[in-house]
Amino acid sequence: MALEARRRVDKQNPTVSQETAISVENVSKVYRLGVAETRHDTLGAVFVDMIKSPLENYKKYRSLYKFDDVTSTKIGNGTERSDVLWAVRDVSFDIKRGELVGLIGTNGAGKSTMLKILSRITPPTKGEVRVRGRVSSLLEVGTGFHPELTGRENVYLNGTILGMTKREVESKFDEIVEFSGVSKFLDTPVKRYSSGMKVRLAFAVAAHLEPEILIVDEVLAVGDAEFQKKCLRKMEDVGQHGRTVLFVSHNMSAIARLCERSILLHQGGIVKDGPTHEVVSAYLSSAWGQTAEREWPDEAEAPGDDVVKLRAVRVKDKNGEVSNSHDIRDPILIELDYDVMELHHQLYIHFLVHNQEGVCVFTAIDQDPEWRRKDRQTGRYTTVCRIPGNFLAEGTLSVTPVLRSIRPETYHGHAPDAIAFHVRESFEADSVRGDWVREIPGVVRPSLEWTTRYTCKG
Amino acid sequence: MAINGRTEPLGGDLTVVIRSDSAWDTLSIETFRELWRYRDLFYFLVLRDIKVLYAQTIMGFAWAILNPVIQIIIFTLIFGKVAKVPSDGLPYFLFVTVAIIPWAYMSEAMTKSSESLVSGQGMLGKVYFPRLLFPLGPVTAKLVDFVISLVILVLVMVYYGIAPTTNLLYLPLFVLTMICIPAGVGMWLSALAIRFRDVKFAMAFVIRMLMFSAPIVYSASTIPDAYRFLYSLNPIVGVIEGFRACLLGLSMPWEYIVPGIVTAVLLLVTGFAYFKRMERVFVDVI
Questions:
Q1: Is pLDDT of B117 > 50?
Q2: What is the structure's pLDDT at A44?
Q3: How far is the first Cα of chain B from the last one, in angstroms, to the nearest whole number?
Q4: Helix axis angle, B92-119 relative to B198-213, nearest 10°?
Q5: Is the pLDDT of residue A357 over 60?
């Protein structure tokens, strides 16, 4: 709505629209899905098909880019077809000059297609994009690098491919070489480079682009950590020079560092557009369609048996608010409500925490000394387990509460993956991550104490 | 074409409008302006093709001479000595040399140009630049081989004591036509090949057919008068006959040259139009 309003203003006031670098209006992109091959079981059938197939094939390949049949029906008008994919559907947004915007979303949300449309690589099926200013898009590091050419030749080729003129490459050549750190091998064919060297050289070229609008796809995922930091700093630099940057990444901390504004795409449409921290947390909490709280108001449906029944599970933040997105540094509270309906059972209440890959991260057992080895009265109990901050690794985690008794040993019931929550990376540098920007392996990420002593001279 | 670059006079800035629109919209002056803006890239793409071609060979650019020489020798032996194909009274070796030099360029440029989009498909999906640079690159790069192979021509002509005549002044016209043909064919076939890979397999015999469709190993004078006009529509005929006439100082066979130039230009214009029309779907059909 806000966007709509702004566009209307633009049309009335040309000085406002002067500042628009990219304007996207009702853009859709349709792809034809798997033009399926028919299968044959006999040689004869294959042969017959080979004879009649040229015409079929012609129609098939033609249908890959003819969409009259699809787009003639109104967009979003119920007529869903299974053979086409709306990679981007009716997307509109404006980007002002000098704005740094992050584009986020799950795989298949339409981010890359959007970038390809903005980079003029593929046209939209419907809608219109206006781009004002010189654009360089970086959808891949080292596009057009040729293994037989030397480092020097590839710098020129890659630079001009990315939109620089020969003279611009010349004037930045020394800087590029210095940035890459491969000056010794400039006249060696790139095929003799290590893959790391190739990436450094390619990125050095890209980092020295000076377009008015820079479109960057997930390219920070390459290179070693030190080099990545260098690149991030360079990108921040670009932003500070008043250039417009559109940036796609799965690295939320990089997005948060670089972009004030972000756009969240899901299944080809815009879900949220606004300040990065809001959009990022909307993305993280939507990631798995998980619920932070589950209650069983109907006793008959609640997990458990005649002895004990689970009535609710919740995940709360340190303030006691139900939340499914948690800062990695903050403690997380898991709360279980259960009803005890029979006396003389020593309960053994616990829950399992699994991560996205299905690995059991840990099991937490209620060992509250006040209740341990004691008979319980019948009635409602609420138990809270506190998971410390700086302990879980970032990602989505699910909780499976289990109800057992230790004496007499009985299994009462459990609720597999009853709730789930997301641990998100801190964007400030005081988390365990520090200055590292890439993935950190491990199912937990505890904050541990380190001591380093200087023992002797080299 | 759909991806349409149009400069609009808004604050003197370059505004690009990207939309799916009708094909003929974009056959505008902007297409050529854009090609001009990308001239540096074109230069480096051509340079790449030239440098890469003979990379890691012992002979290097000597291949640009060896290839046509071997062809000339084989043709002289088979068609000249064994089959005794008439060559209008000229020594067969000389007769075939003046034809092979332009033909070697045209056939190689045509083959490379029609493969250009398919072999460049990695770049196609990752970066934008005028797609026309793909088929036009090899057409330009192969000119280097052509210029080198002119050495053979000069040596053979000196050997046979052929003195240049004023006919030589026409040569640029035929060189230009010689470039137009693979450019036109390259634009047509590269745009077709990205959609239908059949082109790649057809190319080998198409080139062979084209060779026999032009007076390279035989003389155009053996064509019956009734078929002469039809024959002259093949632009390669005009180029070969033109090269022969202006290098060897024969009378200019305009009846072959004029229709040939007309069809070469037609080929270029239609190839350009077809390429621009199909350009927008290249990435989506890889």
A1: yes
A2: 66
A3: 17
A4: 160
A5: yes
- Those residues whose C-beta lies under 8 Å from the C-beta of residue A72, and which sit 6 or more positions away, are none
- Name all domains of chain A by residue range, CATH numbers in brackets: 37-81 (no CATH), 92-286 (3.40.50.300), 293-424 (2.70.50.60)
Pairing verdict, β A126-132 and A409-414: unpaired
Q: Does residue A326 contact residue A332 with C-beta atoms inside 8 Å? A: yes
- Please, which residues bridge with residue A20 across strands? A96
Buried b (16+ CB within 10 A) or exposed e, B228-252: eeebbebbbbbbbbbbbbbbbeeee
Pairwise CB contact (< 8 Å): B18 & A65? no
Tens-digit pLDDT profile for residues A115-169? 999 998 988 988 999 998 888 888 888 888 999 999 999 999 999 998 889 999 9
Contacts of B127 in chain A (CB under 8 A): 119, 121, 137, 139-140, 143-144, 161-162
Q: Scan residues 16-35 of A and list those with Cβ closer than 8 Å to B.
A: 18, 31
ipTM of the complex: 0.85
Which residues in chain B have Cβ-Cβ distances shorter than 8 Å to A149?
Answer: 48, 51-52
Question: Which pLDDT band holds residue B26 (cuts at 50, 70, 90)?
Answer: low
Is the pLDDT score of A321 beyond 90? no
- A122 interfacial to chain B (CB closer than 8 Å): yes
Residue with tokens 């499914």: A324
Closest residue by Cα to residue B68 from B135, B159, B8, B155: B155
Total residues found in chain A within this entry: 458
Inspect the interface and report whether the beta carbons of B281 and A65 lie closer than 8 Å. Answer: yes
Nearest CA in chain A to B124: A121
pLDDT (tens digit per residue) in A358-389: 778 999 999 888 888 777 889 999 999 999 99
